[in-house]
């Protein structure tokens, strides 16, 4: 039996019928593979950064400091160029997200995802065959453009094809693939660290695999009904809506999409329209949630986990193995979030994260658990608003990636109290200001 989803338009009750179709599941899996690209890159950079062969070739002063440090482990990786190797990707993603927003609107979600995979593949080649720091950074910038395009298009695509009944779970497929990508990267780091002197090249080169999955997999899927309707391809949009919903009775939802598209078309400057008073709550929530996400410290741990564990006294193999354990736990808890998000709602899972404590490996693992089923929930916004959300995420990801090793050098263990204070602020924000979106359709 098809699910009946309640919405409202002009004050009247509206019913949207939908089945969970095999085609929707396939589309979700293919599109969410964009998360593999992002996740693999998050996980791989920290491991490569800790590899001696990589440091000796590109950052000899860090290599010397790493092996001479006896008492002050906190500062041996403090190098702005080394941090730029990680952070430059996210600065590029910040800028490219606005171009990706326009491409999503003008050409569609599918071409944007394909462009993401192509940028990423070129960046992978430059990184894998780099002979100097300039090639590394240019490669990272191209990877960042790919990430910016993917992070703009994929969650939007997933949100628009998903029936409301499983919208939360389908959207979290992207984050699930991010965590799987991180785990795979941690496994690759662990084994490639033993392959001298080329292990780091293989580790960076394997990032091309998820990009190929997205590039060729996207040939199997088509555009979302919303995107087709936005571009005045109404017959195609209706046919696709019937296909992904698995029912013929789509008149109500189709008319709702057409109405929303007509209203959107009347807005000449969607970015300026976001600044209007009626749009401020959604815009503020979209941006603040992304800022809070980064100030949990989650990406600082994911980027620099091997470095962090080495700072705590772990040897190279032990630090990489500990990172692998953290990555595995992240995947497991994200699977839990897929099952629970549409039952318990977003706010309950977000608040759960704010109640967990922190302290070295065990409590870092608890922290990872809380984050995996909470703060990484996607936001359902349209292209302009989503560009602000993605760019905000990337801006503060860049700040954390660029500053973390220096902050650790100066703040030492106090850096975790810094992140803990932000987690308290997030909890207060969720309790008093964040509305629940469980069961609310994405059409307006």
UniProtKB/TrEMBL annotation:
Keyword Transport found: yes
Pfam families per the UniProt record, alphabetical: Sugar_tr
Location in or out of the cell: Membrane
Topology term for the membrane: Multi-pass membrane protein
InterPro entries attached to this UniProt entry: MFS_dom, MFS_STP/MST-like_plant, MFS_sugar_transport-like, MFS_trans_sf, STP/PLT_plant, Sugar/inositol_transpt, Sugar_transporter_CS
PROSITE patterns hit by this protein: MFS, SUGAR_TRANSPORT_1, SUGAR_TRANSPORT_2
Residues in the signal sequence: none
Transmembrane segments: 20-40, 82-100, 112-131, 137-158, 170-192, 198-221, 283-307, 319-341, 348-373, 385-406, 413-434
Gene Ontology CC: membrane
Keywords attached to this entry: Membrane, Sugar transport, Symport, Transmembrane, Transmembrane helix, Transport
Stretches assigned to the Major facilitator superfamily (MFS) profile domain: 27-444
Single Gene Ontology MF annotation: symporter activity
PANTHER family: OS07G0206600 PROTEIN, SOLUTE CARRIER FAMILY 2, FACILITATED GLUCOSE TRANSPORTER
Family from the record: Belongs to the major facilitator superfamily. Sugar transporter (TC 2.A.1.1) family.
NCBIfam families: SP
Name listed for the protein in its UniProt record: Major facilitator superfamily (MFS) profile domain-containing protein
Upper taxonomic lineage: Eukaryota, Viridiplantae, Streptophyta, Embryophyta, Tracheophyta
């Amino acid at each position: 039996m098809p699910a009946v989803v309640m919405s409202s338009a002009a004050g009247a009750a509206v019913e949207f019928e939908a089945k969970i179709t095999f085609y929707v599941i396939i589309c979700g899996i293919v599109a969410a593979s964009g998360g593999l690209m992002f996740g693999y890159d998050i996980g791989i950079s920290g491991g490569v950064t800790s590899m001696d062969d990589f440091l000796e070739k590109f950052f000899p002063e860090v290599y010397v400091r790493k092996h001479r440090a006896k008492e002050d482990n906190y500062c041996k990786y403090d190098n702005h160029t080394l941090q730029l190797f990680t952070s430059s990707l996210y600065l590029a993603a910040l800028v490219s997200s606005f171009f990706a927003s326009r491409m999503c609107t003008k050409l569609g979600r599918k071409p944007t995802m394909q462009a993401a995979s192509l940028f990423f593949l070129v960046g992978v080649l430059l990184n894998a065959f780099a002979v100097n720091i300039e090639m590394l950074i240019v490669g990272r910038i191209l990877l960042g453009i790919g990430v910016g395009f993917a992070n703009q298009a994929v969650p939007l695509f997933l949100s628009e094809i998903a029936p409301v009944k499983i919208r939360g779970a389908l959207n979290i497929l992207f984050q699930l693939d991010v965590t799987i990508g991180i785990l795979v990267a941690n496994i690759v780091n662990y084994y490639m660290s033993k392959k001298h002197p080329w292990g780091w090249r293989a580790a960076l080169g394997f990032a091309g695999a998820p990009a190929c999955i997205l590039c060729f997999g996207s040939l199997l899927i088509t555009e979302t009904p919303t995107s087709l309707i936005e571009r005045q391809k109404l017959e195609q949009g209706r046919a696709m809506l019937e296909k992904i919903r698995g029912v013929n009775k789509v008149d109500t939802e189709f008319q709702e999409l057409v109405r929303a598209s007509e209203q959107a078309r009347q807005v000449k400057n969607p970015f300026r329209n976001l600044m209007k008073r009626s749009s401020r709550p959604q815009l503020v929530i979209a941006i603040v949630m992304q800022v809070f996400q980064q100030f949990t410290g989650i990406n600082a741990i994911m980027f620099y986990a091997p470095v962090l564990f080495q700072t705590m006294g772990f040897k190279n193999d032990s630090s990489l193995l500990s990172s692998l354990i953290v990555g595995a736990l992240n995947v497991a808890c994200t699977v839990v979030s897929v099952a629970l998000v549409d039952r318990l709602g977003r706010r309950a899972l977000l608040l759960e994260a704010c109640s967990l404590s922190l302290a070295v490996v065990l409590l870092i693992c608890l922290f990872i658990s809380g984050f995996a089923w909470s703060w990484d929930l996607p936001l359902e916004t349209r292209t302009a608003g989503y560009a602000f959300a993605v760019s905000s995420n990337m801006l503060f990801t860049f700040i954390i990636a660029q500053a973390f090793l220096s902050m650790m050098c100066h703040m030492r263990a106090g850096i975790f109290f810094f992140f803990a204070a932000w987690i308290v602020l997030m909890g207060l924000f969720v309790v008093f200001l964040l509305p629940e979106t469980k069961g609310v359709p994405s059409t307006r």
